[in-house]
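Priority: medium. Attachment 1 of 2:
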């Protein structure tokens, strides 16, 4: 009887050691009362066992993480009781539906937060200034909501620890605050808003940036030449704005660049020869501008390039003879320019090519026989008034039928580069891996609890003392 009583006391002790504090419990009760689509174990009458719930991580009875990413959760918003979560470090609610609610300013009271991921949560209203006071915040992802107003200015030590700021695909207006340059960001995503005016020159001092997206806004003026000082950049998105002037010759200084999107602007001049220095480049998109002169031969040195779209410019001259050396190319689109000469025979060396669009130019001569070995599985159109089929042995079947459309459905058109989106939170690396994306626990159900072996050892010592 004595042993049974002692064991009961031990189990009670162990249970209490995992109990959450009253403020944590109040928040979880609010959530279970007002949100639908929660995991089955999330029930108000079971809230004392919250450390065992999926999506909850605890450290010795202290609530450290909430992760409900991508569940069919729906509710009236984040309850104000979040201000009581003073031990919470990471909050992942991306991909849920909060029905037009606003971001509660009281979230700033959860001062241990280092990750706030509210991406694609159907939120409205403005960005609360209070968020800037979170002293340990490193990752703030508010993209793909319906937020309005201006991007908050940063003063003093505000946002001092933030390395990843994603405000993309909202309805934010005004200008880009020059004060953002004070931050040591690795990722800055402001794409898909209503931002106006020019790119502040001071952004060129953000030497830690590896990802910069200002695309799909209403920005104008020229691309600042000093932006090419951002030599850590791997992705640069300036597409779908109203930039004029020319592409800076110094663009070649961005030697770490893997993605460069400049399409749908009003850029003039020529493609600088220095583009050949971008040896890590995988995607280059400059379509729908006013670019003139020829395609620089230096572009053929980009051996890692997979996407090259120069459609709808005023390019003249010939297609570089050595284009077949760009062995990684999957999409090649020179459609609707003023290119002359013949299609190079070397194009048949592009065995990875899925799409080829050369129509609406002034090309002439024969379709290269080498083209017959290229799959072009996703479409091709090489129709020009003076291009003809010469022979049948290795021509694409569609050419042998008298058409220069290399696919059954050429009207489908070429691939249009897609604007960047926030990576799936479940795939994001931790900051220590070198990426600037939001860290995630290794799995949604991971829990940090007191070791069972340690608990048994404590129980044994207590029993021995009592006996």
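Attachment 2 of 2:
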């Amino acid at each position: 009887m004595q042993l049974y009583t002692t064991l009961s006391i031990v189990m009670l002790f162990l249970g209490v050691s995992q109990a959450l504090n009253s403020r944590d419990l109040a928040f979880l009760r609010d959530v279970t009362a007002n949100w639908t689509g929660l995991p089955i174990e999330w029930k108000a009458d079971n809230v004392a066992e919250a450390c065992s719930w999926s999506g909850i991580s605890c450290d010795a009875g202290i609530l450290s993480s909430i992760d409900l990413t991508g569940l069919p959760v729906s509710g009236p918003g984040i309850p104000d009781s979040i201000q009581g979560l003073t031990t919470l470090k990471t909050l992942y609610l991306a991909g849920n539906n909060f029905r037009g609610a606003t971001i509660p300013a009281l979230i700033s009271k959860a001062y241990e937060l280092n990750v706030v991921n509210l991406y694609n949560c159907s939120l409205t209203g403005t960005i609360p200034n209070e968020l800037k006071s979170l002293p340990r915040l490193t990752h703030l992802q508010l993209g793909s909501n319906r937020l309005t107003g201006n991007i908050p200015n940063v003063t003093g030590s505000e946002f001092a620890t933030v390395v990843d700021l994603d405000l993309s695909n909202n309805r934010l207006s005004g200008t880009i605050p020059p004060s953002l340059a004070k931050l040591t960001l690795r990722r800055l995503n402001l794409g898909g808003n209503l931002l106006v005016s020019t790119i502040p020159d001071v952004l060129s001092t953000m030497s830690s940036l590896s990802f910069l997206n200002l695309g799909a806004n209403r920005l104008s003026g020229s691309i600042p030449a000093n932006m090419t000082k951002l030599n850590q950049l791997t992705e640069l998105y300036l597409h779908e704005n109203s930039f004029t002037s020319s592409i800076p010759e110094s663009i070649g200084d961005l030697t770490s660049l893997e993605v460069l999107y400049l399409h749908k602007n009003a850029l003039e001049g020529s493609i600088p020869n220095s583009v050949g220095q971008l040896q890590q480049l995988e995607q280059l998109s400059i379509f729908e501008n006013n670019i003139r002169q020829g395609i620089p031969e230096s572009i053929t040195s980009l051996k890692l390039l997979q996407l090259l779209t120069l459609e709808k410019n005023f390019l003249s001259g010939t297609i570089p003879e050595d284009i077949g050396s760009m062995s990684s190319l999957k999409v090649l689109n020179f459609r609707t320019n003023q290119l002359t000469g013949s299609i190079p025979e070397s194009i048949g060396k592009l065995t990875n090519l899925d799409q080829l669009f050369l129509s609406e130019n002034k090309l002439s001569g024969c379709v290269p026989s080498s083209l017959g070995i290229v799959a072009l599985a996703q479409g091709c159109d090489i129709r020009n008034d003076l291009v003809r089929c010469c022979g049948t042995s290795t021509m694409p079947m569609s050419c042998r039928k008298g058409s220069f459309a290399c696919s059954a459905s050429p009207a489908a058109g070429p691939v249009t580069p897609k604007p960047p989106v926030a990576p799936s939170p479940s795939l994001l690396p931790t900051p220590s891996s070198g990426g600037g994306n939001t860290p995630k626990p290794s799995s949604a159900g991971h829990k940090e609890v007191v070791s069972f072996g340690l608990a048994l050892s404590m129980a044994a010592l207590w029993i021995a003392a009592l006996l």
